[in-house]
Design goal:
- By secondary structure, this protein is α+β, with helices and mostly antiparallel strands.
- It has one domain.
- A 3-stranded antiparallel beta sheet has the order 1-2-3, covered by helices on one side.
- A hairpin with a 2-residue loop joins strand 2 and strand 3.
- Helix 2 packs across helix 3.
Length: 76
C-alpha cells in the first residue's frame, strides 16, 4: 500500500489544516535564513531545520518529528 502524504506526514498535515500554520522549503542564499525547511504560524517561526538534508524526504521527516513535539506542547 502506498502512503499518502497525510498518512506519512500526519503532523505536517495537522500543522497546516488544524493549526493554520504553514511550512517553507528551499534555500535562499541571499537571505538571512540558513535552514532548508521551516515551520511558521501567526508571526513566528517555532522551528527551523538544518541547512542541508540528503533528500526532501529526510527534511520532511525531520519537520514532521519536530511538529509532533510542538503540537503536543500546544494541544496536549
Amino acid at each position: 500500500m502506498v502512503d499518502t502524504f497525510d498518512r506519512k506526514y500526519s503532523n505536517i498535515q495537522r500543522w497546516i489544516v488544524e493549526h493554520d500554520g504553514w511550512i517553507q522549503l528551499g534555500d535562499d542564499p541571499d537571505g538571512p535564513l540558513t535552514s532548508f525547511v521551516r515551520a511558521l504560524d501567526m508571526g513566528r517561526m517555532p522551528w527551523e531545520g538544518r541547512s542541508q538534508y540528503r533528500s526532501l524526504d529526510e527534511a520532511l521527516q525531520d519537520l514532521d518529528s519536530a511538529l509532533a513535539q510542538i503540537l503536543k506542547k500546544l494541544y496536549g
